[in-house]
Specification:
The structure holds 2 protein chains of 2 kinds.
Chain A: E1 2-3, E2 6-7, E3 21-26, H1 32-39, E4 51-52, E5 55-56, H2 62-69, E6 72-75, H3 87-98, H4 103-116, H5 132-143, E7 150-154, H6 162-179, E8 182-186, H7 190-196, E9 199-204, E10 209-213, H8 216-221, H9 226-232
Helix pairs in contact in A: 3-4, 3-5, 4-5
Chain B: H1 2-24, H2 27-33, H3 38-76, H4 81-91, H5 94-120, H6 126-158
Helix pairs in contact in B: 1-3, 1-5, 1-6, 3-4, 3-5, 5-6
Classes of the chains: A alpha/beta, B mainly alpha.
Chain lengths: 240, 160
């Protein structure tokens, strides 16, 4: 990954398995969100390729990319709900574009998706009329609109109180268990990492590459290097 | 042309600010990751809206211009209302009217594209949104002036 001639990260090799809750972790500025943007096609890798199952996403033509992206859902850090549309319209847009459902059915599905995240009755609210936590949950229901195989979350806990953050973690696990979705989460919230993650990579800003991978709980029990140990223990026992 | 410049300052800047803010809040990224084209959903409707509205605004501006001329003619040059209207009808033909309407539609395209282009090119900060709005106005006005020059040459060659 590079911005112009500045190489942010190199030699990133990892596999995400079906049914994983895969955590991309690392300190601030290590390139976690940038890596996510590469995975969903918003940034292009300076070198290397990204595969979705056997399909080469990096070299795919625009039509193939769109088809692959339709099988994914993204929850952005800010929610990124379209501010000029109601919550129901936000969820319904992808359904309108990609299915033959009539407006009544689309509305029903939008209500159902909102109910899944605890926002039943908020169909006709605009994003500016609800709280930040509700916007995140509405963003999640939009990401789920097309029943994606893979869900990407960029800092889902950012800006949320501890209880809302915990509820969102429970929701992520529900999605994995009940819908069979694979979940990729960018976060540095330790509580979330240990609660939901079963696989991970650690991006090290100093060495500019992945310095650890695997189950976060295993990494905590047997840290492969001091940096990972410091990160996963919040540097406890050290003078900061 | 005046209508176009006013719209570049008002609507072109508004388009750039709207799309720039959508870029900052990742709303444009949300279209892309759903496989939806931001051009189709965000740019095209704005261009069509301005192309349809600019001729109406042009007619309104023409009407106000004629009224302004009447005010000056009657108030300062001692012309009568009937004389002013008769001379105006004599001096301004249908070709001028429709030429102006056609030009205004083209200016509408230029203003809308300038605003949308600068908005989509916007950086990821609030100051970048301000820069995008400023840049959209400058680009819009420069495009209108350039188009106006081209129209003058083309209309001259065609004898319009």
């Amino acid at each position: 990954m590079a911005y112009g001639s500045f190489v942010l990260m190199r030699d990133l090799n990892f596999t995400i398995n079906d049914g994983d809750v895969f955590i991309i972790m690392g300190g601030s500025g290590s390139g976690k969100s940038t890596l996510l943007r590469h995975l969903i096609g918003l940034n292009e890798p300076a070198q290397g390729e990204i595969f979705y199952r056997a399909e080469n996403f990096t070299k795919a033509d625009p039509a193939k990319r769109q088809e692959i992206l339709r099988r994914t859902g993204v929850l952005f850090q800010s929610g990124a709900l379209w501010s000029s549309m109601t919550l129901a319209e936000n969820i319904g847009l992808a359904l309108e574009e990609y299915t033959d459902l009539n407006p009544h059915e689309i509305r029903e599905i939008a209500s159902l998706k909102l109910a899944l995240v605890g926002l039943k009755g908020f169909e006709d609210y605009y994003p500016s009329e609800i709280s930040g936590g509700m916007q995140k949950r509405a963003g999640l229901s939009r990401a789920m609109a097309l029943d994606p195989e893979i869900l990407f979350f960029d800092e889902p806990s950012a800006g949320l109180d501890p209880i809302s953050s915990r509820l969102l973690d429970d929701l992520i696990l529900d999605l994995r268990d009940n819908l069979g979705a694979t979940v990729v989460v960018v976060t540095h919230e330790l509580a979330s990492i240990f609660t939901i993650g079963n696989n991970s990579v650690f991006l090290d800003a100093e060495t500019r590459t992945i310095t650890a991978s695997g189950d976060p709980k295993e990494l905590l029990a047997h840290p492969p290097n001091p940096m990972v140990h410091r990160f996963l223990t919040r540097g406890e026992g050290e003078q900061i | 042309m005046m209508t176009g410049i006013i719209m570049a300052g008002r609507t072109g800047a508004a388009f750039a600010a709207q799309l720039g803010t959508m870029k900052v809040t990742q709303e444009i990224d949300a279209f892309t990751t759903l496989g939806l084209s931001p051009l189709e959903f965000l740019v095209l409707p704005r261009v069509i809206a301005l192309v349809l509205m600019m001729p109406l605004l042009c007619l309104y501006a023409d009407f106000v211009g004629v009224l302004g001329g009447a005010t000056v003619g009657m108030g300062m040059l001692d012309l009568s209302w009937t004389t002013y209207i008769r001379e105006t009808i004599h001096a301004v033909g249908l070709t001028d009217l429709f030429g102006g309407i056609f030009k205004s539609a083209v200016y509408g395209v230029l203003v809308a594209l300038s605003g949308c282009l600068r908005g989509i090119q916007c950086g990821n900060s609030s100051s970048a949104v301000g820069d995008a709005a400023t840049s959209a106005v400058v680009t819009g006005i420069v495009a209108i002036v350039a188009a106006c020059g081209i129209f003058a040459v083309v209309f001259y060659v065609l004898g319009i």
